[in-house]
Design a protein that fits this description.
The chain is α+β, with helices and mostly antiparallel strands and 209 residues long. The chain has three helices and twelve strands. It binds fe (ii) ion (FE2).
């Protein structure tokens, strides 16, 4: 599978953006599956989510065909981008170590966090408002924001944060050390995304020795 990806590269850090090969119908099926999951586990788990629902982080092992399909897309695209970024041979071991859903209702957001020790992390958007009307100082509700690892800003560095308004079917992939957050949104419809972590096999083996 060959993929198209853009390297947004902010603060000298790679931030890849790619479109997963999906249709509105498939995204709708995934959305419905995730909403059913939330119904069966209303409490969810507590991570960076503020008011939002966070699923268990093992959805990559789900029996659901639509989640298995999504996992396969994330894995294939992620592996290619990671091997490219790390200049790794095409057969080097890369593992998808966790995958979970975030369902943010009105007012929910995700606090700044990183995903260490995982080497690469990312998210894919299932059902988000692509055209929020409100924008304050360039930031829209529901935007994903990335923080410069050296957040000094002008005059030494570019602005200390960069933000994107997500699009359905789009996937971001970035190093696990990169601090990020999700701005609160104020739509009646929930903002639904799936996030994931990757590990590099060689690093895991080195640590284990
Ligand atoms: Fe995150």
């Amino acid at each position: 599978m060959s993929i198209k990806a853009e390297n947004r590269s902010h603060f000298g850090v790679p931030i890849f953006e790619s479109l997963i090969p999906t249709s509105p119908r498939e995204l709708e099926d995934i959305k419905n599956q995730l909403l059913r999951l939330r119904d069966s586990d209303k409490e969810g788990i507590s991570r960076s989510n503020q008011r939002g629902w966070h699923s268990d982080d093992n959805l990559h092992q789900s029996d659901s065909p639509v989640l298995q399909w999504l996992t396969e897309q994330v894995f294939q695209i992620g592996c290619q981008m990671i091997r490219h970024a790390e200049r790794l041979p095409s057969e080097s071991p890369v593992y998808l170590s966790s995958l979970w859903a975030n369902i943010n209702d009105f007012g929910a957001w995700n606090a700044p966090h990183a995903h260490l020790p995982c080497e690469w992390s990312g998210c894919v958007y299932i059902d988000v408002n692509e055209t929020p009307q409100e924008r304050n100082n360039g930031i829209a509700p529901g935007d994903i924001m990335f923080f410069d690892p050296i957040p000094v800003g002008a005059p030494y560095r570019p602005a200390a944060t960069v933000n994107y308004t997500p699009k359905n079917g789009t996937m971001f992939l970035f190093p696990g050390y990169l601090l990020h957050m999700v701005a609160p949104h104020y739509d009646e419809k929930p903002r639904i995304s799936v996030a994931f972590n990757f590990r590099l096999g060689e690093n895991i083996q080195q640590v284990a020795r």
